[in-house]
Specification:
Elements: E1 4-8, H1 10-15, E2 26-29, E3 37-41, H2 49-55, E4 61-65, H3 67-70, E5 76-78, H4 85-101, H5 104-107, H6 114-123, E6 128-129, E7 131-133, E8 141-143, H7 152-162, E9 165-174, E10 184-189, E11 198-206, E12 212-214, H8 215-218, E13 225-226, E14 233-234, E15 241-250, E16 256-257, E17 261-266, E18 272-274, E19 280-288, H9 290-298, H10 306-310, E20 316-317, H11 319-336, E21 340-347, H12 352-356, H13 359-376, E22 381-385, E23 388-394, H14 398-416, H15 418-423, E24 424-429
Parallel strand pairs: 1-2, 1-3, 3-4, 4-5, 20-22
Antiparallel strand pairs: 6-19, 7-8, 9-19, 10-17, 11-12, 11-15, 13-14, 15-16, 17-18, 21-23, 21-24, 22-23
Helix pairs in contact: 6-9
Length: 439
């Protein structure tokens, strides 16, 4: 019988209202680095948990919490029903078994590579990152892998774009154009004043005198219809009258129209917007495909699609191509004394867009900046990687680099405004050093 081990500490035991039920092939341990699963108190997690999840992103963490919260977690155990631990641990066994299938040499490098970490996580979770709607999460939805892999949403997008993940439409929504939240209220409004205080009224048409008006104007307290124009009683539908349609009346401005305007209101940031500002957006589940499985077991991912390398219109190259180019220019610099420089551009973590903006907003803005710089400066090469731009500047020395940074700030200010410039951080790097890529 194969044995599995679950980490358990005294604080967690103290929260459980009863004895947990252990499967026969599971044992409790106080060694978290060797455990196949971790059982911790959600409200009082141990200080080492964050570092443990960084170094072991695939390890299942069973959080002990209240019954309502337990259902929103990948592995949640109600503190009032610890007997459910037996069922949870049985589900965890498949994760431990799948992880053991990955070669040891690859498992040892997972913690240092977000793409390997994501692929390993998906491999151990039936290959799927499932989207779950959650009003408590950023944007109103979440993936379970966000607790284990840094920048999980961005990594999923990049891996799908590179061909390692398939995408399956899970939901569709109209998101807030300001904060990208799914928590949006959509409603019909007056096309004249945007008021929600509207009512739809049925129209009634009297054949004999051709009068047409609101049904309420014809309706008597007796329930009969009497034409307000000729005072004739209307008895037979289709012979005396018909109902050709309806009209929307606004109680705020009095405007009448056959149509309304759909407008939205974000329940997260209170932004009010026309539906045209929020086109229908698909939300995806991500599935590790055969290409991704082969890359995982090989232990290496190329994080850009081949078309991104070959298509000059996009302007941005992959980090792998950038690394190759930097090594060549570094050799030229050493041998011939021709200087080159490397510039990194990223969002300042204290900037408002980094604090409050959505991931999609940051990715779109930073890639737009990179594409614009690549278009205007044809001698430079620009790469994108996990929210950062790397710019290779051939023939550029220290003095020239300071001038180029000033030129870049001017270009970005002209194209994207002062707020974007203020949010960006520029840092200079030697091409003789390793590429300053985010992990």
């Amino acid at each position: 019988m194969k044995l599995y081990y679950c980490y358990l500490d005294d604080a967690t035991v103290g929260r459980l209202q009863g004895e947990p039920s252990w499967p026969l092939n599971w044992r409790a341990t106080d060694k978290s680095d060797k455990a196949d699963a971790l059982l911790v108190d959600l409200d009082r997690p141990p200080s080492w948990l964050a570092e443990c999840r960084r170094t072991r992103p695939t390890v299942p963490v069973i959080f002990v919490t209240d019954a309502d919260h337990a259902g929103r977690l990948e592995f949640g155990l109600s503190d009032v029903d610890p007997t459910q631990l037996n069922k949870l641990l049985k589900g965890v066994e498949s994760i431990a078994d799948a992880l053991a299938q990955i070669p040891n040499t690859v498992r040892e490098t997972i913690a240092g590579d977000p793409y390997l970490a994501m692929a390993a996580y998906l491999w151990t979770r039936e290959r799927r990152a499932k989207l779950e709607l959650d009003r408590h999460s950023s944007g109103g939805y979440r993936y379970a892998c966000e607790g284990a892999v840094p920048r999980a949403r961005e990594v999923l997008i990049n891996m799908a774009h590179a061909g390692y993940l398939g995408r399956e439409v899970s939901e569709a929504a109209h998101c807030c154009p300001s904060c990208d939240s799914l928590q949006v209220l959509l409603r019909d409004t007056c096309i004249q004043c945007a008021s929600v205080n509207i009512r739809e009224e049925t129209l009634l048409h009297h054949f004999s005198c051709s009068h047409q008006g609101h049904e309420s104007a014809f309706l008597q307290s007796s329930g009969d219809y009497v034409c307000p124009k000729c005072r004739q009683t209307l008895r037979h539908f289709g012979m005396d009258y018909d109902k050709p349609g309806s009209i929307v009346s606004c109680s705020s401005c009095g405007h009448q129209s056959a149509e309304t305007q759909i407008r939205g209101r974000c329940l997260t940031c209170d932004k009010r917007f026309d539906i045209e500002q929020s086109p229908r957006q698909a939300l995806y589940d991500y599935v590790l495909n055969e290409v991704g499985v082969h890359a995982l077991f090989r232990g290496r991912f190329t994080t850009a699609a081949l078309t991104d390398i070959l298509e000059p219109k996009r302007g941005l190259i992959s980090p792998e191509v950038m690394a190759m180019m930097v090594s060549k220019f570094a050799a030229v610099e050493k041998r011939y004394g021709i200087d080159s420089a490397l510039l990194k551009i990223e969002f300042d973590q204290n900037a408002e867009i980094a604090q409050n903006g959505s991931l999609e907003q940051r990715v779109k803005l930073i890639t737009a900046v990179g594409q614009e710089l690549a278009r205007l400066r044809t001698t430079d090469s620009v790469a994108y990687h996990l929210g950062q731009l790397l710019i290779l500047l051939p023939g550029c020395n220290e003095q020239g680099l300071n001038r180029i940074i000033s030129d870049f700030e001017t270009i970005v200010r002209d194209m994207f405004g002062d707020e974007t410039v203020a949010a960006l951080r520029f840092s200079k790097h030697s091409i003789q050093d390793p590429l300053p890529l985010a992990a």
